[in-house]
Amino acid sequence: MGIKRISTGSPFEKKAGYSRAVVDGDMVYVAGTTGYDYETMQMPDDVQVQADNCFLTIEKALKEAGTSLKDVVRAHYYITDANDAEKVFEITGRYFAEVRPAATMVVCGLIKPEMKVEIEVTARIGAGDSA
């Protein structure tokens, strides 16, 4: 089985030379995803709206890969302000309260000042079936 590359059509993917997700066997690697609303190409100011948008984009990529958030085994959360951690946890908890992947949150700078959160995940197709 070959590698399948998934694109959301974001102009950033072509410009930076990456795929939104890559499927390799039963593993799905979803690239770091920021909170853009890809329908409007706008970045909301609210960190929780950004985090929710991250998950909507991630869900879409996972669905195209033949899986879902229930199969996520690893998550990395990058935030630009430690004071936003609790706000982001409210969103991550909404999506992952039952899944509970291994996760890490890092406070760092992101490539554009309007970006407040970036999320990347790794999923194993069928992992949620054994939980």
TrEMBL record:
GO MF annotations, alphabetized: lyase activity
Keywords from the named record: Lyase
The UniProt record lists the keyword Lyase: yes
InterPro entries: RutC-like_sf, YjgF/YER057c/UK114
Pfam families: Ribonuc_L-PSP
TM spans (from-to): none
Superkingdom of origin: Bacteria
Protein name per Swiss-Prot or TrEMBL: Isochorismate lyase
Organism (species): Maritalea myrionectae
